[in-house]
Amino acid sequence: MHHHQHHHPSLHQDDSDNRLALAFFLNVSFTIIEFIGGWLTNSTAIMADAVHDLGDSLSIGSAWLLNRLGRKSANHEFTYGYRRLSLFGALINSLVLVGGSLWVLSEAIPRLANPVMPLTEGMLVLAVLGVAVNGFAAYRLSKGKSLNEKVLNWHLLEDVLGWVAVLIVAIILQFVDWPILDPLLSIGFTLFILINVLRNLTATARLFLQAVPDKALQQKIERTLLDIDALQSIHHLHLWSLDGEHHVLTAHLVTDVGSDFNATVYAGIKQRIANALAPFDLAHTTIELELTQENCRDERQLYENQEE
């Protein structure tokens, strides 16, 4: 018994594509300006925010690419489709951010002992531009309904707050000679990035290793299936995720209908299982029905392998 949800292109997907494309090109363009501006103003805080924006640009680019590839149907080679590419994208993003963060720390930490006054006028201009560009991109993505767009919108709002912090420091440095504020701010930004990157790396690694994406969801699915009168027990229940959003379920369900088992009863049980699983919006489900007097094929094979 197999279930697969088909996804078709729609006007909503085109709108989502356009929003992600705009946010991507805005972020990439501004990230380049940031790196140049950070070098010209001699500000490690701006360099740190440039690394943050580079990570967001990669995330938005991955989401945009995935949004387009997600429309491609599964084939004989990629039987589950292309959604797991998002995990590969997340891994690349994380490695780039770790490298960028270590570089910023190597620049900023020595400056704590010998702080250098950045060009505050340039910092002010870049900070105002940063608030405007990231704010506009966040506003456009806030209209999106997909989980991808909502998550990326939060990243962009974080960027806006980061640039507000740069703006405040730049204003303070206009009036007082506290150059140490610049490396302190960059170290704060970088540690914030690293904490989030390590959290994302852990989550990505778990999905790569096909860990249960949500234990509470797995338990709820199991209870829901066991509430079906015709089912006696469940084993080999596996819940894993293609990309963190689209989950896959396989399970062996034991039915105790006994001698009354026929095609009509079988079809009825299948329909009740389908109805029970429908609210969970699973991307793929594969269910095997077993009679109580049957030996589970997978368990028998496991036993035979152990005997060998």
Secondary-structure blueprint of this entry?
Layout: E1 2-4, H1 11-41, H2 44-69, H3 85-113, H4 120-141, H5 147-175, H6 181-208, H7 215-226, E2 231-241, E3 247-255, H8 263-277, E4 284-291, H9 297-307
Helix pairs in contact: 1-2, 1-4, 2-3, 2-5, 2-6, 3-6, 4-5, 5-6
Description:
This protein is of the alpha+beta class and 308 residues long. It has nine helices and four strands, in the order βαααααααββαβα. It has a four-stranded mixed sheet with strand order 1-4-3-2, covered by helices on one side. The longest helix has 31 residues. About 2% of the residues have low confidence.
Keywords:
308 residues, alpha+beta, Alpha-lytic protease prodomain-like, Alpha-Beta Plaits, 9 helices
The multimeric state of the shown protein is: single chain
Low-confidence stretches: 5-11
Biggest β-sheet strands, sense, barrel: 4 strands, mixed
CATH class of the largest domain: Mainly Alpha
Distance between the termini: 31 Å
- Rg, rounded, reads 26 Å
Counting DSSP E segments of at least 2 residues, the number of strands comes to 4
How much helix is in the residues?
Answer: 55-70%
Per the CATH scheme, the topology name of the largest domain is Alpha-lytic protease prodomain-like
Relative strand content? 5-15%
- Return the domain count: 2
CATH architecture of the largest domain: Up-down Bundle
Question: Given the structure, what is the number of helices?
Answer: 9
- Series of H and E elements: EHHHHHHHEEHEH
What is the strand arrangement across the widest sheet? 1-4-3-2
